[in-house]
Amino acid sequence: xxxxxxxxxxxxxxxxxxxxxxxxxxxxxxxxxxxxxxxxxxxxxxxxxxxxxxxxxxxxxxxxxxxxxxxxxxxxxxxxxxxxxxxxxxxxxxxxxxxxxxxxxxxxxxxxxxxxxxxxxxxxxxxxxxxxxxxxxxxxxxxxxxxxxxxxxxxxxxxxxxxxxxxxxxxxxxxxxxxx
Length: 180
What we know:
The chain has 2 helices and 9 strands; from the N terminus they run βαββββαββββ.
């Protein structure tokens, strides 16, 4: 199902900007472990920090700010305190819960092995489906995306996700919740 936006012409994301504790470790992880080329580096004025951009594929960028006076991360507030399958994934309103990179379905297991070989803890492959827990160890007829989860040096939860089928009108049927 190709939904059409009648109001604005979006072409994807230009960039997502996150905040890191250590720019050197961030570069080592995103370029060294994940292989994302560093495309732009900026020294912010008056010693107020740095802003680095990485190529995330498809013309998109992932960017990081480093601020010398940034407050510390607060697991469970700024990012999930647990990995998928290990406890609550709740985070505060207006926080970023996780970032999912679109990857080829046939590469999920290979990428899991590569991450683990580089010293990163990963979840087992999660087959997201319509089962009671919304996840199965095996692919089911209702599986719509397969993924693995891991974290970066700052604890930001990342996901490699692969669509297994085209989504359609059957996939949009849950009424949105409201606090009012």
